[in-house]
Write a structure and sequence with these properties.
The protein has six helices and nine strands, in the order E-E-E-H-E-H-E-H-E-H-E-E-H-E-H. It is an alpha/beta fold and 200 residues long. It has a single domain, classed as Spore Coat Polysaccharide Biosynthesis Protein SpsA, Chain A (Alpha-Beta Complex), CATH 3.90.550. Strands 5-4-1-6-8-7-9 form a seven-stranded mixed sheet, sandwiched between helices. Strands 2-3 form a two-stranded antiparallel ribbon. A hairpin with a 2-residue loop joins strand 7 and strand 8. The longest helix is centred in the middle third of the chain and has 13 residues. The protein starts with 6 loop residues before the first strand and ends with a helix.
Length: 200
C-alpha cells in the first residue's frame, strides 16, 4: 500500500432520522446479525488505517455516541433534521480546524458490508493524486467517497439532502473498484435489513 501523502480522515455520518425505516428510529442502533449497524461501519473505518475517525451524531445522539470506540472523535449535528448536507458540514468544519487533515473519506452508518479495504483504497487514491474519488461495485458508484480539502468549501454550500455526490456532476471523479472488499448495500427499510440477514 502506498504511503498517504497527507492525513486523510475517515468520516461516518450517523445523524439521520431514519424515516424510511419507520417511525423515529435510530437506524445506527438497529441490529444486524446481533450487533448495531453502526458498529460494523466504525470497525471498518478504524481498521482502514485512516485517521482521525470522526463520527457525526444527531438523531438519538447520546445512544449513537455510546457506540463510539475509544479514540473516535464524535461531533454533534443539531440541525440533522434538515438533511445529510448538514452532517457533512459539521464534519468538515471539525476537520478544517485541524491543518494536518488534507482529505476526508466519507461513509454512511447504514452500510455494514462496506469493508475496511474500500476506505483504505479511497485514501490511497488521494496519495495517487485524486482530490475526488468514489468506490465502485460492479461499475456502479457507491460509498465511501473521497473529498480533498480543496473541495470542502464547495461541499459546505450543499443544502438539504444533497450529499457529496452532488459535486461529482461538476468535477472529474476517480472511480476506485472495490468489488472484492464488500458491498455497499444500505439499510433504508426493514425489508432491506431482512434481505441482508438472509444473505448472511
Amino acid at each position: 500500500m502506498s504511503t498517504i501523502r497527507g492525513t486523510v480522515a475517515a468520516v461516518v455520518l450517523a445523524a439521520g432520522r431514519g424515516e424510511r425505516f419507520g417511525a423515529d428510529v435510530a437506524k445506527p442502533l438497529v441490529e444486524y446479525r446481533g450487533r448495531p449497524l453502526l458498529t460494523y461501519v466504525l470497525d471498518a473505518a478504524v481498521a482502514s488505517g485512516l485517521g482521525p475517525v470522526v463520527l457525526v451524531v444527531g438523531n438519538h445522539a447520546e445512544a449513537v455516541r455510546s457506540l463510539a470506540l475509544p479514540g473516535i472523535e464524535v461531533v454533534s449535528n443539531p440541525d440533522f433534521a434538515e438533511g445529510i448536507a448538514t452532517s457533512l458540514h459539521v464534519a468538515l468544519k471539525h476537520l478544517a480546524s485541524r491543518g494536518i487533515v488534507h482529505a476526508a473519506v466519507i461513509g454512511l452508518a447504514d452500510q455494514p458490508k462496506v469493508g475496511a479495504a474500500a476506505w483504505s483504497r479511497l485514501g490511497v487514491a488521494y496519495d495517487d493524486g485524486a482530490s475526488m474519488a468514489v468506490a465502485t461495485y460492479d461499475g456502479v458508484r457507491a460509498n465511501p467517497v473521497l473529498l480533498g480539502r480543496d473541495h470542502w468549501p464547495e461541499a459546505m454550500a450543499l443544502r438539504g439532502d444533497e450529499g457529496a455526490r452532488q459535486l461529482f456532476i461538476r468535477h472529474d471523479v476517480v472511480e476506485i473498484a472495490c468489488d472484492d472488499t464488500g458491498n455497499p448495500d444500505d439499510v433504508d427499510t426493514p425489508n432491506d435489513l431482512a434481505r441482508l440477514e438472509a444473505e448472511g
